[in-house]
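Dear H.,

Thanks for agreeing to be a second pair of eyes. The structure we're designing against is below in C-alpha cell form, covering all 169 positions.
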C-alpha cells in the first residue's frame, strides 16, 4: 500500500469515527429531549399548565421556573453562557414544586440527577398537587398553573378545577 493510499484510508477512518460519534451524540440529545418533553407534559397537565409548552425550547424552562415561583426570564441566561445560574434557580424551583407535592429533599436529589424521572413521578396519577402548601412552608405561590395569583398565558384556563383568583377569593 502506498503512503498516499494509507493517508487516504486514515482520513476515511477518522471521518467515519467523527460522523459516528456526532451521530450518536445527536441521537442521545434528541432522545433525551423527547423523554423530557413527555415527562414535563405530564407534570404540566397535572399542575394546570398547557401541556404543549413542554415541547417549546426555552419556553418550557421559562414556565418550569415560574411554576417554582422563580422569574421565567432566568431561562434566557443560558443563551448568554450563564446556564449554571439558570440551573441553580431551576433547582430552587424544583424544591418548591416538590414541596407542593409533599416531597422531601431526597426527592430533590432525584430531580437534580434524573429530572425526567422526577417529572414523570410528579405527573403520575398517584401524585397530588397542593400549591397551598407553599404558603405553609413560607414559599411564594407559583406564577403559573393552579395556585397562581395571576392568570398567565401558560395557565390552562380550560383545565378542570382551575379557578381565577377572583373566584377563589
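And this is the sequence the design step returned. I haven't edited it by hand at all.
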Amino acid at each position: 500500500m502506498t503512503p498516499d493510499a494509507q493517508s487516504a484510508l486514515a482520513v476515511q477512518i477518522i471521518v467515519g469515527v467523527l460522523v459516528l460519534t456526532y451521530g450518536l451524540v445527536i441521537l442521545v440529545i434528541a432522545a433525551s429531549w423527547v423523554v423530557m418533553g413527555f415527562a414535563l407534559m405530564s407534570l404540566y397537565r397535572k399542575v394546570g399548565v398547557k401541556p404543549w409548552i413542554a415541547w417549546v425550547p426555552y419556553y418550557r424552562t421559562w414556565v418550569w421556573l415560574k411554576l417554582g415561583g422563580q422569574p421565567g426570564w432566568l431561562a434566557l441566561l443560558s443563551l448568554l453562557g450563564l446556564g449554571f445560574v439558570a440551573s441553580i434557580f431551576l433547582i430552587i424551583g424544583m424544591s418548591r414544586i416538590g414541596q407542593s407535592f409533599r416531597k422531601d429533599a431526597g426527592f430533590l436529589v432525584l430531580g437534580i440527577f434524573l429530572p425526567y424521572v422526577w417529572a414523570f413521578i410528579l405527573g403520575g396519577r398517584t401524585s397530588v398537587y397542593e400549591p397551598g402548601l407553599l404558603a405553609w412552608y413560607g414559599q411564594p405561590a407559583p406564577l403559573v398553573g393552579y395556585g397562581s395569583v395571576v392568570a398567565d398565558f401558560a395557565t390552562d384556563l380550560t383545565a378542570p378545577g382551575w379557578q381565577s383568583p377572583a373566584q377563589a377569593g
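Two observations from my side: The longest helix spans residues 3-47. The chain is about 55% helix and 0% strand.

Warmly,
E.
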